[in-house]
Write a structure and sequence with these properties.
single chain; 47% strand; 5 strands
Length: 94
């Protein structure tokens, strides 16, 4: 996970707003990180988009991750996680 953030900040990976699909700048990501106090341990959900391939001749499966969406924890008034807010989507083919 830290590797993805490093690539965002050094400009070698473009990430996208989960809802709009618009590209986010490194400054946008820093602002989002500040929402959860720059504590990446609060990222509690990773959602992957994958392609799966079945090869009947060998009876094997292969999967390739295409993207990952990071979600950070939202807490209720009792301090329990009740949902996750999408941070951004990273295309892994870059």
């Amino acid at each position: 996970m830290n590797g993805i953030f490093k690539r965002v900040y050094d400009g070698t990976l473009t990430v996208y707003d989960y809802h709009s699909g618009e590209a986010l700048s490194a400054d946008d990501v820093k602002k989002i990180e500040s929402e959860f106090n720059n504590d990446r341990t609060k990222i509690g959900k990773l959602s992957f988009t994958e392609d799966w391939y079945y090869y009947p001749a060998t009876n094997t499966l292969e999967k390739k991750a295409k993207s990952v969406t990071f979600g950070f924890e939202l807490y209720n008034n009792l301090g329990k996680v009740y949902a996750y807010k999408a941070v951004f989507k990273a295309d892994l083919g870059q």
